[in-house]
Design brief:
Chain lengths: 165, 165, 165, 165, 165, 165
C-alpha cells in the first residue's frame, strides 16, 4: 500500500484541493466501478448455472418439476436484476463521476458506456456465456479509465476468488 | 496476482469441489464485503460534509436558505440510505454466505454482525464522525473474516483513493 | 382487553419511562413480529399452491401452456418476495429492537434469528412444505420472545383465518 | 382460540370451498389489515415525536443544529414512508381482496377507502395529531369490515403495547 | 396548440387561482394519466408477445430451452410489473388528484377506478388479450374524465405509434 | 388523428416488419419520452414551490416551524425523486431504444443524453429555476429526436395544462 499511497499523494499534489472542489459534484459521492464489476460477474455466474442445470427426466414427478422451474426462474431473475444493477452503476459513473475534462482525455468515453450498457441489456435477453464475458470485460475497461483519472493503476486482484468455483 | 492465484489454488485444493458444493447455497451468489465497505465510507463522507456545511448568515435571503436546506437534507438522506445499504449488505453476508462451520471457527461471528449493524443504525440517528469511523472499522473486521474463509489476505488498497479528498 | 391492559400497566410500572427512554432507539419505531409472520405464512401458502398446480396435458395448446407458466412463475415470485420480506422484517427486529439487556435474558437470541433467516433463504431455494412450516414456527418463537420482553403473552389468534382455505 | 376456531368453522361451512374458490383471486394472497394499522400507528408516533422535539437554543453550535435537523428530517421521512405504506396496503385490500359481493353488503366500501387513503395523504402534508388519530380510526373501521367478511370479530389487542410509550 | 391554450385560459378564468389553491393538494403534483396508459399498453404488448412465442421443438437442446424460458419469464415479469405500475398510477390519480367536487360531477368515479384496478389485477393472473384491451380502454375512460376536469378534450394521438409493430 | 395515422402507415411501409424486427430489442418495450418530460416538469414545479414557500416568522411556535420544515423537506424530496426518475427514463431511451443506425443520423445523440442527465443531477443539487427549465428543454429536444425516428412530428400539446397553475 505504500507505493499506492505515494502515487495517490502525487496525484493529489497535482490537482490542488480548491480546483478539484470547483469541478466536484455535491454531494461528492464515493464512486467505485467494483459495484458494476460484481454485478457483471454475477450475470456471468448465473449463465454458467443456467447452462449446467439439468432438466427433469421425462418421468419426473410434479415435485421435481416444480423444483426445477423454481431454480431456473430464480437464476433468470438474479441474472436480470444484476444486469439491471450493472446498468445502473455504470449510469451513475457516466453521469455523476465523469466530467467534460475526462471526456477530452477519453474521447471514446460515451461509446464505452453505451456499449457496456447495451451488453447488459443483451445479457438480460439471452443466456449466452460469451455475452456475459464481454460484459465483464467492458466493465473492466471502464474501471481502468476510471482509476486512471485518479492516477491509480487498476487491478481486481480478487476477481477469481470472488467468482468462486 | 500470481501469488494470490497460487494461494487460491491451494485453498481450492484443500476443499474439494464436491464438498464445497454440499454446503453451497443455491444460487451460489457472488459475495464481496466491498459493497458494505463502500456504503460505510459513504456514511463517513456525508458526516464530514454535514459538519463542514456553513449555515446561512442571519441576513441570508430565501434563495440562500433554500439552497442550504436542500444540500443539508440531501447529505442526511444519502447518509441514511447508505447506512441502510450497509446493513442490507451485511445481512446478506451473515445469512447467505456464512455457514455453521464458519461459526465454529469464528464463535464471535454473530457479535461482529450485530455490532456492525447496530453501528449502522447509530449512524442513521446521529451525525458523529467517531461512530462513522467505527462503522468502517467494523465492516473491515468482517471483511477480514470473510476473506480468511477463502484463504485470501484482506486488503482494501484503494480505500483512500475511493474516499477522496 | 382489560386484563392485557392491566398487565401492560404493571410492566410499564416496572420500567419507568425515563429508563426506557435511555435504551430507546430514535426514532422509536413501532415493532411487531406480525409482519414477519404474515410473510412466512404467505411463503407457506405459495408452496401449497405450487404443489397443487396441475401441469398442462401433453396435448395442451400454447394458450394453456402460457397460462400455466404465468401462474407458476407468479407463485414462485410471490414466494421469493415474501421470503425476502420475512428476512427483512426479522433483520429489523434483530438489529433495531433487541438490545444487549434482551440478549442477557435470551442468550440464544442470535441463533434464533440466524436460523429463522436461513430458513427464509432455504424457502427461496426450494419448494418444500416442511421448510415453510419450520419458517412459520421459527417466526412464532421469535414473536414469543419479542412479546415476552414487553410482558405480553403472545397469541396469533387469527393465524388460521388469515391463512384461509 | 377455541371459540374463534369454532366461529371460523361455521363460516367455512357456510361458504363451501368450491364456491369460495370461484370468487378467489389467484394467487390467493394472505390479506390482513394489520399491516395498514401498524403503518398508521407509526405515522401517529412520528407526529408525537416531531411535536415533542426541542429546537436547538439560539446559541447552539453547528453540531447541535445538525443533530436536530438530522432527527427532525428522519421523523418526517418515516412519517412520509409509513403514510405511503398505509395507502399501499389499503389499496391492496380494496382492489385485491374485496369483491362485488362484499360491496353489496357494504355499499360505503369505496367511501371508506377513499377517505382513509386521503387521510394518509393529509398526514404526509401536515404534522397534525388529530389527522393521525383519524387515520388510525379509519383503518380500524376497514379492519372491522374486513374481518366481518370472514366471520371474525375484529380486535387489535396489542394496539397499545405496540404503540409503546 | 393555439386552440388548446385558449380553452385552457378560459378554464383558468372560470376557477380563479385562489379558489383552485384552496382545494389543491400540497405539493401540487403533476398529474397525467398517460403514465397509466403506457403501462396498460405495455401489458397488452407483452400478451401479444407471449402468445406469439414459439415453444422449442421436442428435440431442442438445453440452450434452446433455456433461451425460451428466459424470454417467456421476462415477458411475464414485464407484464406483471407494468400491470402493477398501472394500478399504482391509477391509485395516485384516485386518491391524490380527484376531489369531492369531482365526485359530484362523476358519481361513478369510484367504480371506474375499482374496475380498472381489478382489470390490472386480472391481467397479472392471466394471459388474455381481451383483458389487456379492456384495461387499455378502462384507462382511456379515466383519462377522459381526468382531462374533462381541466377543460381539455382528451386524445392520445400517438397511441398507435407508441404501441409499435 | 387521420393525418397522423397516415404518416404512421407511410413510415411503417418504409421499414418492412421483418427488418424492423431484426433490429428490435426483445422484449420490444413501449418507449415514450413523455415519462421523462413529466418528471422534468415536476422538478420545475417543485423549484417554483420551494422558492415561493414563506419561512415562519421569528416568533413562530413549534407547530408552525414543524409544518414549514415538513413542507420544505417534502418539496425537496419530490424534486430529488423526479430528477432521479428523469435520469432513469432518459437512460432507458439511450440504452434500450436508440440503436447504432439512429446514432448515424444523430451523431450528437450521446451529447444530448449526457447533457440532459447531468442537468437532472444539477437540479438535485440546486434550487434553480433556470436549471429546471433547461432540463425540460433538454428532454423536449430528445423527445423530438425520438419521435423523428418514428416519422412523427413531436408536440406536447398538454404541457401547460399538465404543469397547472
Amino acid at each position: 500500500m505504500a507505493l499506492l499511497n505515494r502515487i495517490f499523494q502525487v496525484v493529489n499534489g497535482m490537482f490542488p484541493a480548491e480546483v478539484a472542489h470547483a469541478h466536484c459534484d455535491i454531494p461528492c459521492g464515493i464512486y467505485d466501478p467494483i459495484a458494476a464489476k460484481i454485478a457483471a460477474q454475477t450475470v456471468q455466474k448465473m449463465v454458467v448455472r443456467i447452462q449446467a442445470l439439468q432438466q427433469p427426466a421425462a418421468d419426473a414427478n410434479t415435485g421435481e418439476r416444480a423444483s426445477y422451474v423454481n431454480t431456473l426462474s430464480r437464476y433468470i431473475q438474479v441474472k436480470e436484476e444484476h444486469a439491471q444493477l450493472c446498468k445502473k452503476e455504470l449510469s451513475i459513473l457516466w453521469t455523476d463521476y465523469f466530467r467534460p475534462d475526462h471526456l477530452e482525455n477519453h474521447p471514446d468515453l460515451h461509446s464505452h458506456f453505451w456499449t457496456a450498457e447495451k451488453l447488459a441489456g443483451r445479457n438480460k435477453q439471452t443466456v449466452d456465456l460469451d455475452a456475459a464475458k464481454e460484459l465483464v470485460s467492458a466493465v473492466d475497461e471502464i474501471a481502468e479509465i476510471f482509476w486512471s483519472t485518479k492516477g491509480v493503476q487498476y487491478k481486481d486482484e480478487v476477481a477469481e476468488a470472488r467468482f468462486g468455483t
